[in-house]
Design brief:
mainly alpha, two-stranded antiparallel sheet, 6 helices
């Protein structure tokens, strides 16, 4: 049991470090959540509300406007950009939100 627990801890550290290096983590939250079911949709709404300071109903509306994409919604919420502009920036930055936001800010 001890060896299995240690192995799990090491694998969790590796996967966490990988996600951070890929730019899929903002603060201490995984911001590349795929909203494929109700539970993940609710998690994405909570992350969006916490990261942007929006109230829960506004976060839900913004996530709806982003067609369920949390990264796009976060970029829209932080930059005030349109859905198309945010989606293009997220795609161009390969999902790294800090770079996507910089792309939009530099265009203005």
């Amino acid at each position: 049991m001890k060896a299995g627990s240690a192995q799990k801890l090491v694998l969790n550290m590796i996967s966490t470090a990988t996600m951070i290096r890929l730019g899929y983590v903002t603060g201490n939250r995984m911001t590349n959540v795929q909203t494929r079911n109700l539970k993940l949709r609710a998690r994405a709404e909570r992350i969006l509300a916490a990261e942007t300071g929006l109230n829960p109903s506004s976060a839900k509306e913004l996530l709806d406007a982003a067609e369920g994409s949390l990264p796009v919604a976060l970029v829209m919420g932080r930059t005030g950009g349109s859905r198309d502009e945010a989606a293009a920036a997220v795609e161009a930055s390969r999902g790294v939100l800090a770079q996507a936001m910089d792309l939009i800010k530099n265009r203005r």
